[in-house]
Amino acid sequence: MSLNINRNVQDAFYRYKMPRLQAKVEGKGNGIKTVIVNMVAIATSLDRPPTYVTKYFGCELGAQTQWDIKNERYIVNGSHDAAKMQDMLDGFIKKYVLCEQCDNPETVLKIKKNMIGASCKACGHIYAMDTIHKVTTYMIKNPPEKKIDDHGESLTKKKDRKKGDTKEGKNSDDDDKVEAGNDDDDDDWAPEDVSEEAVKARMEALSGGLGGLVIDNDMEKPENERINIFHKFVKNKIQSGLGLNAAVQKEIVGEAERLEVKNKAPIVLCELLFDEKMVKDKQIKKNKALLLRFCHDNQKAQKYLVGGLEKTIETYEATLLPKVVHIFKEMFEEDIIEEEVTLEWAKKVSKKYVSKEIASKIHEKAAPFVKWLKEAEEESESDDEEDIELEFDEKAKISTIKETSAEPEKVEKKDATPAAEEDEDDVDIDDI
């Protein structure tokens, strides 16, 4: 049974058709996989390489993909429903097949300088396509004019061949072929009459979310390598001298999301943003906005931030160990690390990030602040139960109840924090 390529069109006589996606689940346990039986027929209808569509499914489902071009087997790891994948295919068609102006699927792709351009044979419209989606990394490395046989069996297979199997010699030539395809200036697809606003919007889309689209398979790399890529990215931004303004902060967050390391990113930020002058120069407050982009309502990121703080304190032990209370207090005051996270951390001395000896010292120094948090929590619970005064309005026939919260004075708690006397600019926690 055939479907309209643009399924929003209900016309039964619509000329652009494609076969309904057929999926077959094979294997069991960890080896289970979904074979897209008619992928070649679907890709032919869309005039796109079948590897593009398969890779798109992998990105959307967060699954490994593989293909055997000679035997026309296109596979997505895991068990996936054909109807769900059909709906997912609509997303690919909307992004990379339909013309943005006339909605006809008669577009021709052209990869040039890390951008994906398209020209429509139906209406003549020329434009730049969305390059935010992860699949574009693969598309740029394997432009449509490149022979399908040169796409290799799969990204996974290519990665394996790098480890030793280079009998066919394809892998060593692939990157050169990609670069040659990108440098072809004979047929410039880029529109010359676009407005300045349109060009600016495209460039922001290209650089804002990804910090510059990279032509490699970052997402195929282990997590530690992706964290190193993020570390290098942030370091370059800091060393550029332009400052970490809102636009740069968005780029940093975008890169962390692209590399799927957003939760662990605070460890990297601690290393690059903080030094022995962390307290003296108020580095926490200066970098509050960036830290909140990762830690707000994200306790996992906050836990990794605490780990990053431990590593920073270990690196600058002589200067920062005496300032532990101040550091944790300021993180709490600035709403970067929540009370629950600190109390959970305080329950156990861990050697996950630093040595057991250093971890014990940090916990010991943080004890007064942890004690303050616990007591403040207990008093807060007591306030909720006992400290509500009721005032009655005698003028009304029916009593009107007014609630006033009697906030207990906790001036004496300030003395429980050693760092409070050391820094004249400390904000009183009780005023928060």
What report would you give on this structure?
The chain has about 425 residues and is α+β, with helices and mostly antiparallel strands. It has two domains: about 1-190, Defensin A-like, CATH 3.30.30.170; about 265-385 and about 415-425, Serine Threonine Protein Phosphatase 5, Tetratricopeptide repeat. About 45% of the residues lie in helices and about 10% in strands. The strands form four sheets. A four-stranded antiparallel sheet has the order 3-4-6-5. The protein has a three-stranded antiparallel sheet with strand order 7-8-9. It is elongated and about 75 Å long. The chain starts with a strand and ends in a 27-residue tail after the last strand.
Q: What's the helix-strand series?
A: EEEEHHEEHEEEHHHHHHHHHHHHHHEE
Using only C-alpha atoms, the radius of gyration works out to 29 Å
DSSP, total strands = 11
How many domains make up the 3D coordinates? 2
Cα-to-Cα separation, first versus last residue = 65 Å
The outline comes out as elongated
- CATH architecture label name of the largest domain: 2-Layer Sandwich
The CATH topology of the largest domain is: Defensin A-like
User: How many individual helices?
Assistant: 17
Kindly report the spatial arrangement of strands forming the biggest sheet: 3-4-6-5
Class computed from helices, strands and strand pairing: alpha+beta
Integer average pLDDT: 79
Q: Which spans of ≥5 residues are poorly predicted at pLDDT below 50?
A: 154-194, 202-216, 394-407, 410-425
The CATH class name of the largest domain reads: Alpha Beta
β-strand amount: 5-15%
Helix content: 40-55%
Largest sheet descriptor: 4 strands, antiparallel
